[in-house]
Amino acid sequence: MNARMTASLAGGMISALLALAAMRGLPLGGILLWLSPFPLYALAFAFGSAALLPALGVGGMVIIVSGGLAGLVFWALVFGLPALVISSLAMRGPAFSLGLPFALLALWPAALLTGAEIALSGQPGGLSGVLRMAVEAAISGLGAPVELTDAVVR
Asked: What is the phi/psi pair of residue 50, to 5°?
């Protein structure tokens, strides 16, 4: 196995494990979630964007085993796909240009929110209604009184 494949497998696993720390609720998981894309971008800029394909495959397998299908979709949409597209756009052509990749990086969250709102439009309240129900379920699952749940959700 060469250095590119080793780095690719390690980058995918590290990124997936950092994301799983947040998905599983480990201490400092929120901070580790912010660091999740770093191994993917470092891999892409060190070995080229083609090295991301095995990394995304290995990372996806790690996520699906421990985080389930929802975790895989989250990791792929928030970290995997943007890393692949942005690094591919940044390294194309003879000149290294970051204009289009940075524009995509800024527009990607808006596109994800729009897609989530469209996908959840059939639910009561749309995306905000689904988020409200998830917070209510989480707080009531902790055994909090109904008054506290109502105060937090409003």
From this structure: -70, -25
pTM as predicted: 0.74
State the amino acid at position 150 in one-letter form. D
Q: pLDDT tens digits, residue range 89-117?
A: 877 766 666 777 778 778 888 888 888 88
For residue 99, give the H/E element and its range: helix 99-119
CB-count burial class (<10 Å; 0-12, 13-18, 19+) for 61: middle
* Rounded Cα gap, residues 23 and 74, in angstroms: 10
Query: What tokens does 101 get?
Result: 């990749």
**If you ran DSSP here, which 8-state letter would residue 51 be given?**
G
4 three-state secondary structure: helix
CA 2 vs CA 24, 40, 54: distances in Å: 33, 18, 13
Q: Are 26 and 12 in contact (CB under 8 A)?
A: no
